[in-house]
Amino acid sequence: MPRSEARVATDRPGRYAKQLAAHMGRKIEADWSDETGRGTLTFRIGTATLEAAPDALLLAVEGEAENLPGLEDVVGRHLVRFGTRDELVVEWHRDNGEAGHVHRNDEPAEG
Questions:
Q1: Which side of the chain, N or C, has fewer Cβ within a 10 Å radius?
Q2: How would residue 111 be classed by pLDDT, with cut points 50, 70 and 90?
Q3: Strands annotated E in 10-98
Q4: Looking at the record's lineage, which domain of life comes first (predicted)?
Q5: Rounded mean pLDDT of 47-62?
Q6: Helix, strand, coil % in the chain, rounded to nearest 5
C-alpha cells in the first residue's frame, strides 16, 4: 500500500502525538500509548501511525495513492496547529519519490 512519512523535530513528541490522537479520536478511531510511545489513527481512507522518538515525532500515512494527499493534509495541518508555539514543520516524503505536502505555521506569532 502506498505510504508517506514525516519526521517532525520536537522535544515533546509524546505530548503532540497524544494531543493529536485525542483530538482526532472525536471523529475517528484513534489510540495512543504513553507506555510504548506509539499510536494509530484509523480513517475511512487509510491509516496513520505515530511514534515518539527521542527528538522527533515520526508520522506515517498509508492508503490508496489518490488518498495520500488528503491523509497528509489532515494529519499535518492539525499537528502544526497544535504546535504553533514550537513552530512545528511537517514535511511528507512519499515512498514513490513524489514530493508530499509541507505544513508549517505561516502566521506571525502573537506576543
A1: C
A2: very low
A3: 29-33, 38-43, 46-53, 56-63, 89-94
A4: Bacteria
A5: 98
A6: 25, 40, 30
pTM above 0.90, yes or no: yes
Place of cell 500509548: 33
Domain boundaries, the chain: 3-104
Neighbouring residues of 27: CB distance < 8 A, sequence distance ≥ 6: none
Spatial separation of the C-alpha atoms in residues 61 and 72, rounded to whole Å? 7
pLDDT over 70 for what percent of the chain?
95
Which helix (H) or strand (E) segment holds residue 23: the answer is: helix 13-24
